[in-house]
Design a protein that fits this description.
The protein is of the alpha/beta class. The chain folds into two domains: 3-118 and 158-174, Rossmann fold (3-Layer(aba) Sandwich), CATH 3.40.50.360; 120-156. It contains six helices and eight strands; from the N terminus they run βαβββαβαββααβα. The strands form two sheets. Strands 1, 2, 3, 4, 5 and 6 form a six-stranded mixed β-sheet that branches. A two-stranded antiparallel ribbon has the order 7-8. Helix 4 crosses helix 5 (145-154). It binds flavin mononucleotide. Flavin mononucleotide is lined by residues 9-14, 51-55, 80-83, 115-117, 122, 126, 129-130.
């Protein structure tokens, strides 16, 4: 198997999963810093990981915007976020609709893994975004279930990364 894992990570969780995957598969690992899709051409299996930011998967356009170029390859995307992975409506609707247009999901297998967040590590812009979101939702008289969940997530701190979460992805790569 000729595989590569590519990641885009600001706070380290997505990078950690990429390193675990690369160790398990003994495959190449690359950081997505303005990578061109052409660098993926030598590989049969491409695993892309991106942190979730306001439902967007960081840098996933490297895969989703080049599906024709990557035709015939085994394509896998994983996300890293704080929303519990059991929250299927969030991942299967919001995240799917925002990141995967048309029939792209028929060509890409997607996995979701728990990430990490510590307020004192966040950039000024991210800290402000979280505080603003909290203020907006707290001011709502009748928040939706999704808004209540978001409010909880704004107050969540911890490192929830878990190597065992990779089991299904690794099994799929080997299929
Ligand atoms: C500004 C901001 C927005 C975020 N938005 C989401 C989100 O929409 N969904 C989610 O599940 N987690 C969200 N998170 C949590 C991140 O996905 C989590 O910190 C993850 O570990 C980021 O990946 P990284 O550590 O590789 O950068 C957000 C975090 C920040 C700071």
């Amino acid at each position: 198997m000729n595989a590569v894992v590519v990641y885009q990570s600001k706070y380290g969780a997505t990078k950690k999963y990429a390193q675990w995957i690369a160790e398990s598969l003994s495959c190449d690992i690359k950081e997505n810093k303005n990578l061109k899709a052409e660098v993926l051409l030598p590989y049969d299996t491409i695993i892309y990981g991106g942190g979730l930011y306001a439902e967007s998967i960081a840098g996933v356009g490297l895969i989703t915007k080049h599906l024709s170029l990557l035709e015939g390859k085994k394509l896998i995307v994983y996300t890293t976020g704080l929303t519990p992975v059991t929250c299927r409506e969030y991942y299967d609707k919001l995240v799917a609709e925002k990141n995967f247009k048309g029939d792209s999901l028929s060509k890409i297998k997607v996995y979701h893994f728990p990430g990490r967040m510590f307020m004192n590590e966040l950039s000024f812009v991210h800290k402000t975004a979280i505080k603003t979101l909290k203020k907006i939702i707290s001011g709502k008289e009748n928040p939706t279930e999704m808004e209540k969940l978001l409010l909880d997530l704004c107050d969540t701190e911890g490192d929830f990364t878990d190597k065992n979460a990779l089991k299904n992805l690794l099994a799929y790569v080997s299929e």
